[in-house]
Amino acid sequence: MENMDIGQIMERLPHRYPFLLVDRVLECTPGESLLAIKNVSMNEPFFQGHFPGKPVMPGVLLVEAMAQATCLLAMETEPSDQDITYLLAGVDNARFKRQVVPGDQLALQATLEKRKRGIWVFSARALVDGKLAASAEIMCTAREI
Question: Of these residues, 20, 30, 46, 50, which one is catalytic?
């Protein structure tokens, strides 16, 4: 599937404002990879306190945005008629390379590395203007909600 809009994303993810951190899916190859974007706006509520006068997107929210992208890839890889969501099971090797600020557009890349005993393992990256902002290995598992 290509070019998933916000309505299609909201049909798949249970997250809602202010925690829905994927705005559009540009490319998706089920079982392989996904490319999505998050437009970072000064209107994000976390910028009021992180940090006043020098807004920086929190690293934990960069990880959450990457995790949401991996969830979308999992859902496209293994569609289900049941009310299934993917829950975060682990984060390894998280690295933060540059600050993300209002006006940036995050390119969220998720690649499925393996599935074993109900655990999905992805490599994920968040880039701004082609430069690495954050990366992590993200693990998730499917649960009926």
Answer: 50
